[in-house]
Automatic annotation (TrEMBL):
Residue ranges of domain Beta-lactamase-related in the record: 37-338
Protein origin, superkingdom: Bacteria
Signal peptide: 1-20
Gene3D superfamilies attached to this UniProt entry: DD-peptidase/beta-lactamase superfamily
Protein name in UniProt: Beta-lactamase
Record-linked InterPro entries: AmpC-like (IPR050491), Beta-lactam-related (IPR001466), Beta-lactam/transpept-like (IPR012338)
Record keywords: Signal
Pfam families: Beta-lactamase
Keyword Lipid metabolism attached: no
Native organism: Chryseobacterium soli
Length: 352
């Protein structure tokens, strides 16, 4: 009987490994076909299935280099940073430093003075699920001023001017994507920990996970990809400033898979924090939102995902906690349609 059980365990392990390999081969086939049709767009993909890692990549680091993109090549993950920030917020909740339904009033920097109409109105969960009703940074104008580094001119004074002049939350409780909301969450983290956002994300995510290619301020590295705008022109990586917590982290497929592994582990701090972010904090006829996380459901699956677009790169991260798989897609061109189409194709034909 013991021998039979051991044999069964080995067969199950081989079956699981073969299943994972089969999925990875199908994913590679989709990515390879996309690259064949779009040879100017470099791509790196990482996939995890029941703790087994798989990677595929196509293209070069830049047009002048013959160095191939691989799982360690650094991209801008842009607004995927928001998932990292919301995980930090959830960790602070677990440490009893804040509650998701706390009002933001007492956690803001002194430069911000909320109008009486706004006091005891906006909760931390409102910021994290994009329903605070606060006005946002005008990226259109900033791009006109500096198309390479549009956020260069955004300072705490800029943000204070926007927030302090707001007298009414016209769409409070309704979804409206917000950069300023996640910038405030970063400042709230700084207030409760007495450290910079850079220090917080390093001590609570980067160092514990040993994800050495996940970069904050210093990202001039040899394995960095070159970003391209939708027209193919070279686009600089965004430089770190006060909006860091909303989208300025750089990373790669390998590090993001390591993060996904931890997220899918219900017993770790990061995994437990992720479960908090997966709670539904906003719902309408079009979407369900956790803390920084989009929640999509069908008849068989619940998946959690977040996309990211800088001026020169596009990315998306997605995972299924119940089935223990996760995927990260990184493109070296701003092309939100391509990265969404790739995820849809993989999900509909393989992962669903």
């Amino acid at each position: 009987m013991k021998t039979s059980l051991q044999l069964l365990a080995v067969l199950l392990l081989i079956s699981s490994f073969s299943f994972g390999q089969n999925i990875s081969q199908k994913i590679d086939s989709i990515i390879q076909d996309n690259y064949r049709k779009n040879p100017d767009v470099g791509i790196s993909v990482g996939f995890i299935n029941n703790n087994e890692e798989y990677y595929t990549a196509y293209g070069n680091l830049n047009a002048e280099s013959q160095i191939k993109i691989n799982k360690n090549s650094v991209f801008e993950i842009a607004s995927i940073t928001k998932i990292l920030t919301s995980n930090l917020i959830a960790q602070a909740v677990m440490e009893h430093k804040i509650k998701t339904d706390d009002y933001i009033d007492g956690f803001l920097p002194k430069a911000y003075v909320l109008h009486p109409n706004l006091k005891n109105k906006i909760k931390i969960s409102d910021l994290a699920s994009h329903q605070s009703g606060l006005p946002d940074i005008d990226f259109g104008k900033l791009i006109e001023i500096d198309p390479q580094q549009p956020i260069n001119s955004v300072t705490e004074k800029t943000l204070a001017s926007i927030i302090n002049s707001c007298t009414e939350l016209k769409d409070y409780g309704k979804y409206r994507y917000s950069t300023i909301g996640y910038t405030l969450l970063g400042q709230i983290l700084e207030k409760i920990y007495g450290k910079s956002y850079d220090e917080i994300i390093r001590t609570k995510l980067i160092e514990p996970l040993q994800i050495t290619n996940t970069l904050t301020k210093d990202f001039i590295v040899k394995n960095r990809t070159v970003g391209h705008n939708p027209n193919g022109g070279i686009q600089e990586f965004f430089k770190w400033n006060i909006t860091a917590s909303a989208g300025l982290v750089k990373s790669n497929a390998s590090d993001m898979v390591t993060f996904l592994k931890e997220v899918l582990n219900n017993e770790t701090t990061i995994g437990k924090a992720a479960i908090i972010t997966e709670k539904i904090y906003y719902k309408d006829e079009k979407r369900e939102m956790g803390l920084g996380t989009n929640i999509m459901t069908d008849e068989k699956n619940t998946i959690y995902l977040k996309s990211g677009d800088s001026m020169g790169q596009s990315s998306i991260i997605c995972y299924n906690r119940a089935k223990k798989w996760g995927i990260i897609i990184l493109l070296n061109q701003r092309n939100s349609k391509m990265r969404q189409d790739l995820l849809n194709q993989m999900y509909d034909t393989i992962l669903k």
